[in-house]
Amino acid sequence: MVGKQLFFKCECFQKAGAFKIRGASNSIFALDDEQASKGVVTHSSGNNAAAVALVAKLRGIPAHIVIPRNAPACKVENVKRYGGRIIWSDVSIESRESVCKKVQEETGAVLIHPFNDKYTIRALDITSGAARWPAEPAAFEFATRRQSSAASTEPVVRVRLI
């Protein structure tokens, strides 16, 4: 049609259903084994919570997810489905951060900040080339399968998270 190759960034095909999976993967797979062994902690009322829980499950480490009491039930269910340990907080950012700090002190878990983390930020812009990758980035690869057929093994989208 336009005589050019087009690339689409289809967030709905991301493994956890949103772009947050890239940041969570980049941050969690960048941890060395000693850091990762203690698990990770984050605060979120939605997609970041699910993404961190899923990536921690894939890496085989604990995920402590601080969720405000007013979070949508469907988001809480996603975290549970991915194996995250839910810790409730009040709604304010101060409460979320305070509860995260307490979890860190109790468990030694590494904070995966939902938006203010260099590995999370680096993973958010994979198309424009504006991101600056680490020299040897942690990588994680998965394929999103066709939604129309649960039996299909043909990848629709193959993503290498750096």
What does this structure look like?
This protein has a domain at 15-125: Rossmann fold (3-Layer(aba) Sandwich), CATH 3.40.50. Residues 127-162 have low confidence and may be disordered. It is built from six helices and six strands. The strands form two sheets. The chain has a four-stranded parallel sheet with strand order 3-2-1-4, sandwiched between helices. Strands 5-6 form a two-stranded antiparallel sheet. Strand 2 (63-68), helix 4 (73-81) and strand 3 form a beta-alpha-beta unit. The chain is globular. It is of the alpha/beta class and 162 residues long. It has helices spanning 20-29, 33-37, 47-59, 73-81, 93-107, 118-124, and strands at residues 40-43, 63-68, 85-89, 110-111, 140-145, 155-161. Belongs to the serine/threonine dehydratase family. One of its GO terms (biological process) is L-serine metabolic process. Residues 3-123 form the Tryptophan synthase beta chain-like PALP domain. Its cofactor is pyridoxal 5'-phosphate. GO terms for molecular function: ATP binding; D-serine ammonia-lyase activity; L-serine ammonia-lyase activity; magnesium ion binding; pyridoxal phosphate binding; serine racemase activity; threonine racemase activity.
Detail the topology: elements first, then pairings:
Blueprint: H1 20-29, H2 33-37, E1 40-43, H3 47-59, E2 63-68, H4 73-81, E3 85-89, H5 93-107, E4 110-111, H6 118-124, E5 140-145, E6 155-161
Parallel strand pairs: 1-2, 1-4, 2-3
Antiparallel strand pairs: 5-6
Helix pairs in contact: 1-3, 1-6, 3-4
Keywords: Lyase, Pyridoxal phosphate
Protein name: Tryptophan synthase beta chain-like PALP domain-containing protein
Cofactor: pyridoxal 5'-phosphate
